[in-house]
Design goal:
By secondary structure, this protein is of the alpha/beta class. It has 12 helices and 18 strands. One of its GO terms (molecular function) is allantoinase activity.
């Protein structure tokens, strides 16, 4: 299939390209920009006048819920939701049932993702068996099965010695480790950011130090072991400062933030809506401002959805008994464009944090419009708007943004030159 995309404003943060031009696709690859190659005859032509063409978005955390949690989502439904949000490549965390700690589970996920064909999927393997934080998973076998990095989520290693050994082992094989830094003891039983809102509502608090204490420990162990590390779901301004200091010292560390942390604060909990129940929690306005600044400067080089779909019943209990998480990958691009609309980021910087930033953090073959590379492209209309929830593909409707009018609309998502979503 040969495709010509004509007249789009092409923005590729990886190369600095930002101009109105044409793109030419053949055999799933981007074969030329500007002028068609000799003898090129398009099988389909996309009129992209007024649209922006960018590398397909790269989302570092999308819970696909399969295997084991089919009531919450499936690989087919959640990758379609991702494609509708402009995503062409995503990483899925190891919180499946059974846990993604064997080659068989990794292969099942990859096979079903290929069958669905909506996005490319890069599994994150479990760092420890069963995510118990006691014994190492078979990391090399998982790598060979397709896992691109390894993490334990918020199920932390209780023993710093065991964690140190795990990091040293990973460093030996140049495997990347993903940290979700939260001190178990400081966070235990907590539901919301420790501050005036939690006190007013009578909710048990999780202090900022739950993140910063664990983060400081993790960074010191990264320095000692030499492992490549990515810090996921940074929530506090102090946490971002610790990442910046580590990068200034030359540590091989990158970081991401959940998109909703750049938009919401703990004040959203004032009506006890369980739609805002997330872990780690929404934090203060000062934290949100600090995170926004870290994204702007590139200390945090990736914005991710941290999509966690749930069935309806999971959010119906009293706040403390509900399951944390927001279903948001389908709104990744429109929600992110609200940061441009509000003057917080310019468009090329935002796209960098959604494309080549996350791809570089985990060394993924994605996130750029390189001639000869995969034709993974999103075409969107910056002048249109999206009413969240009008068409909803995720099984999880646990999204506080449903009904909101958001800037921008995804028109086409192409994976290997194939249209996987058309809006």
């Amino acid at each position: 299939m040969r495709t010509a995309i004509l007249g789009a404003r092409v923005i590729d943060p990886a190369s600095g390209l930002d101009q109105v031009t044409d793109l030419y696709i053949d055999g799933g690859k981007l074969v030329a920009t500007g002028h068609a190659p000799s003898g090129f005859a398009a099988d389909q032509t996309l009129d992209a006048q007024g649209l922006i063409a960018a590398p397909g978005l790269v989302d570092l955390s999308v819970a696909l819920r399969e295997p084991g949690y089919s009531r919450k989502g499936s690989i087919a439904t959640e990758t379609l939701a991702a494609a509708a949000g402009g995503v062409t490549s995503l990483c899925c965390p190891p919180f499946t049932k059974p846990v993604l700690d064997t080659s068989a589970v990794a292969e099942l996920i990859l096979d079903r993702a290929r069958e669905a064909g909506h996005t490319k999927v890069f599994p994150i393997g479990a760092l420890s068996k069963g995510l118990a934080g006691e014994q190492l998973a078979e990391l090399v076998a998982l790598r060979d099965a397709g896992c691109v990095a390894f993490g334990n989520g918020l199920d932390n290693f209780r023993s710093s010695r065991t964690l140190r050994r795990a990091l040293e082992y990973a460093a030996t094989f140049d495997l990347q480790v993903i940290f979700h830094s939260q001190d178990f003891d400081l966070a235990e039983g907590g539901l919301a950011h420790e501050g005036p809102t939690a006190s007013f509502l009578g909710l048990a608090g999780i202090p900022e130090t739950a993140e910063t204490v664990a983060l400081a420990r993790d960074l010191l162990l990264v320095e000692q072991s030499g492992v490549r590390a990515h810090f996921s779901q940074i929530t506090s301004a102090r946490g971002a400062e610790l990442i910046a200091a580590a990068q200034a010292r030359g540590l091989p560390v990158t970081a991401d933030v959940a998109l909703y942390q750049l938009i919401l604060t703990d004040e959203a909990l004032i009506d006890f809506s369980s739609l805002y129940h997330v872990q780690p929690p929404l934090r203060s306005r000062a934290d949100r401002d600090g995170l926004r600044e870290a994204v702007k400067t590139g200390v945090i080089s990736a914005i991710a959805s941290h999509h966690q779909p749930h069935e309806r019943d999971a959010k119906l209990a009293p706040f403390a008994a509900t399951e944390p998480g927001i279903s948001s990958v389908q709104l990744l691009l429109p929600l992110a464009l609200s940061l441009v609309q509000d003057g917080l980021l310019d468009l090329p910087t935002l796209l960098a944090r959604l494309t080549n930033g996350p791809a570089a953090a985990l060394r993924l073959p994605a996130g750029s419009l390189r001639v000869g590379g995969a034709a993974d492209i999103v075409l969107f209309d910056p002048q249109a708007s999206t009413v969240a929830g009008e068409q909803w593909y995720s099984k999880g409707s646990n999204c506080p943004f449903i009904g909101h009018c958001l800037p921008g609309a995804v028109r086409y998502t192409l994976v290997d030159g194939h249209i996987s979503y058309q809006g």
